[in-house]
């Protein structure tokens, strides 16, 4: 990075820290001691990561400014299943060893759809292996398929059954964000203008959450039953509307599901046995726990209809607290978040100062009003303020 550009960038970051000490950035230097890569996150991003950083997607597919540096964005889901941004990075462009070598092209048009099926549809290992092998035979020579197959544990549905992903598919969040970036960015932006435009995109996402928050407080979620059970009422008050809707769908399916007792204690095979095979569910009434073979809770953080069915069989009428993840609730942002130095992270210090000013002004105004009727009180308050003013 050129000296002048680096200086402007560092000044921009220092100004941000002066506005809010919780702003963070980090630099990586190259062998010539020039800035190669940059990472930054403002206070709100740090707070968002503390609340929603259990699943993070990182994507570098978006081309950025006139230096054509790879741009990476760390994103996740908030409690409304909307995109939330945790940080961003501009990285050094890696040069290929064979720059003149043509990039490999996928000639078979069905390869991408076949690969998508291998990624998301096949939940049994034999089915996955068979279909991947058929897809591989469509390509006559060694391709990226061979290298990506070695990483199948990181992307194939069968291997991702018990992985906590919140239901996020591939890089869908980053792809959604890239659409907004393309609208706001131009290829000829200098670095500082790039930062400002990115800030505008981030603010747009935050405004979306603010609107969702307003709507969720303005009206309560709609419960489909006229006389709703206690568990649905409980969930409607705790969950955000979009999460409650998903939970209510599972509850409705649990009412239609059948349960067959198995040999073990509190073991059941649960399903509708028409459109799906049953899943084995093991319950423990004393600990108020349920474990289902479908592993939906392990992946998404919302109990499946099979587990809800067994909870009802065990006469557990309220959702146990361990199955109501705070990250999906209305109160997820409650509480204090501290940085690695133990300092409270404040999203907007100016707003806090304004609130403090309003609080103190009211107290001083009330004190002045009461003291004004007594000369000795006026003298006491006046002398005390002189001492505090020093």
From TrEMBL:
InterPro entries: Znf_PMZ (IPR006564), Znf_SWIM (IPR007527). It comes from the Eukaryota. The keyword tRNA processing does not apply. SMART domains: ZnF_PMZ. One of its GO terms (molecular function) is zinc ion binding. PROSITE patterns: ZF_SWIM. The keyword Metal-binding applies. Pfam families: SWIM. Residues 279-315 form the SWIM-type domain. Keywords: Metal-binding, Zinc, Zinc-finger. This is SWIM-type domain-containing protein. The lineage of its organism: Eukaryota, Viridiplantae, Streptophyta, Embryophyta, Tracheophyta.
């Amino acid at each position: 990075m050129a000296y002048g550009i680096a200086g402007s960038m560092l000044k921009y970051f220092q100004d941000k820290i002066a506005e809010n000490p919780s702003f963070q950035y980090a630099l990586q230097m190259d062998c010539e001691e020039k800035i190669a890569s940059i990472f930054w996150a403002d206070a709100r991003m740090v707070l968002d990561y503390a609340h929603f950083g259990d699943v993070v997607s990182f994507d570098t597919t978006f081309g950025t400014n006139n230096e054509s540096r790879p741009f990476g964005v760390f994103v996740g889901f908030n409690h409304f299943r909307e995109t939330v941004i945790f940080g961003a990075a501009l990285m050094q462009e890696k040069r290929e060893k064979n720059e003149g070598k043509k990039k490999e092209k996928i000639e078979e048009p069905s390869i991408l759809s076949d690969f998508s099926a291998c990624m998301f549809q096949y939940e049994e290992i034999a089915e996955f292996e068979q279909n991947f092998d058929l897809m591989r035979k469509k390509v006559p020579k060694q391709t990226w398929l061979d290298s990506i197959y070695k990483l199948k544990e990181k992307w194939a549905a069968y291997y991702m059954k018990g992985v906590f992903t919140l239901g996020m598919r591939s890089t869908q969040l980053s792809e959604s964000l890239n659409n907004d970036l393309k609208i706001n960015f131009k290829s000829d932006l200098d670095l500082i203008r790039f930062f400002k435009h990115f800030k505008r995109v981030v603010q747009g996402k935050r405004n979306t959450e603010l609107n969702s928050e307003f709507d969720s407080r303005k009206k309560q979620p709609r419960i489909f039953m006229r006389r709703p059970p206690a568990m649905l009422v409980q969930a409607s008050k705790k969950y955000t509307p979009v999460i409650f809707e998903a939970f209510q769908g599972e509850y409705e399916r649990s009412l239609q599901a059948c349960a067959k007792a198995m040999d073990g204690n509190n073991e059941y095979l649960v399903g509708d046995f028409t459109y799906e095979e049953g899943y084995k569910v093991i319950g423990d009434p004393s600990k108020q726990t349920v474990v289902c073979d479908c592993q939906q809770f392990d992946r998404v953080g919302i109990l499946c209809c099979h587990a809800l069915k067994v909870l009802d069989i065990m006469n557990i009428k309220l959702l146990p607290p361990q199955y109501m993840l705070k990250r999906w609730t209305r109160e997820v942002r409650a509480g204090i978040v501290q940085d690695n130095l133990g300092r409270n992270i404040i999203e907007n210090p100016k707003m806090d100062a304004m609130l403090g000013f309003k609080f103190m002004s009211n107290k001083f105004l009330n004190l002045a009003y009461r003291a004004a009727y007594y000369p000795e009180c006026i003298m006491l308050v006046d002398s005390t303020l002189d001492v505090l003013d020093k």
